[in-house]
# Entry
Amino acid sequence: MIGLCILAFLVEAVTDEWVYFIFIPMWALQMPWVFVTSIFFHADITHLLFNMFALYIFGRYLEMRIGSRDFLVLFLVSGVVGNLGYFLTVGTKGAPALGASGAIYGVIGALAILAPLLRVLVYGFFPVPLIFAAVLWALIDLFGLLLPSSIAHGAHLGGMLVGVAVGLYYRSSRRILGAYYI
# Structure
C-alpha cells in the first residue's frame, strides 16, 4: 500500500490526469472508482509522509496478526467507507478529499481492539495505551465534524468504525494469528 501511495504521488507530480481519481462528493456517484482511487493520492509531501509513517507503524503490526489478505481487505474497505463517511458529512459537495487517512484509521481501530494496551506516543510525546489514543482521536474527529476545516473528519470516523468492527470480529472468533492479545 505504501508503494502504491508513493507511485500515485509521483503520478500527481507529472500529470494533471490524477484529478479524475480523487474523491469529490458531487461527482462521486458518476465516478464510483474514486471511492477507491482517492485513497492512494495525497495533497502534498507532508500529507503523504505522515500517512505513510502511520501506515508503516500501525499497519505492519496489524498485518502480522491478521495476515496480508485480510489486511488488504481491511485497508481498502476502511478507505471506501471513510470516503462514504466524508460524502455524508461534508458541507460543501465540491470539496475534494484524498489520502489514506480513512484506511489508516481502520487499521488503528482494528489494532485498538486487538492490542488495546499497546503503547503509542500521542503527538510524539505522550505514551498511552492504543485504546486511549484511538478514543481520543475519534473524539477529536467527532468534534471536528462541527467545525469547518480541511480535515476529512467523516472519513476518519468511517474508517475507524470499519476497523473496530473487524477487530471485534477477530477478537470474538479468535482468528488472530498467534491467538494471543496484548
Notes: The helical segments are 2-14, 25-28, 34-37, 45-66, 68-89, 101-114, 130-144, 153-173. The radius of gyration is 16 Å. The longest strand covers residues 119-122. The beta strands are 119-122, 126-129.
